[in-house]
Amino acid sequence: MINGGMIMYLNGLDELDQKIVQLLIKNARFSYSDIGKEVGISRVAVKARIQALEKKGVIEEYTTIINPQKISGAISCYFEIETLSNSFTDVIEILNQNNIVTQIYRVTGKNKLHVHAVAASNSEMEHFLHTTIDTLPGVISCSCNIILSRIKDIKGLRL
């Protein structure tokens, strides 16, 4: 279903909730009053709907997104890692505890992960490679790609 050029991915949200979520994806700092004006309901009704979406877990959090490419010296990489079955959960735990790791995804294939990392400098990334990535237990294969530029990066779920 197409609504205003956007593909509808969420079943279970009424049209009003979908409009509210679209506005919050565009700018999570919109006030209840501003959202109410846009969708045609009161500030109190907007607040109640947003709180219900939060309670259901549809809206998980509000955050500030930093573009590491705009910070001098920062380096972003992603890794494709495949492990032995008996090491998979250990690898996830090790990566999950590391502050340089920003995202971990389990992907198709047996015991495969897609991992994003952001370091303040090349030397910090190299240290991470030597002390963390190179020492992960049971790794069958690992590839690393430096992210040169961000071309498209959709925040949140497209509605």
How much is the radius of gyration in Å? Answer: 20 Å
Sketch the major β-sheet.
4 strands, antiparallel
Q: Separation of termini?
A: 10 Å
Find the count of extended strands (DSSP E, 2+ residues): 6
Can you walk me through this structure?
It is a single chain. This protein has 159 residues and is an alpha+beta fold. It contains five helices and six strands, in the order E-E-H-H-H-E-H-E-E-H-E. It has a four-stranded antiparallel sheet. It has a two-stranded antiparallel ribbon with strand order 1-2. A hairpin with a 2-residue loop joins strand 1 and strand 2. Helix 2 (32-39) crosses helix 3. The radius of gyration is 20 Å and the shape is elongated.
Short description:
With 159 residues, the protein is of the alpha+beta class.
Layout of helices and strands:
Layout: E1 2-3, E2 6-7, H1 15-26, H2 32-39, H3 43-56, E3 75-83, H4 88-96, E4 101-107, E5 112-119, H5 122-131, E6 139-146
Antiparallel strand pairs: 1-2, 3-5, 3-6, 4-5
Main features:
alpha+beta, two-stranded antiparallel ribbon, 6 strands, disordered N terminus, 159 residues, 33% helix, 23% strand
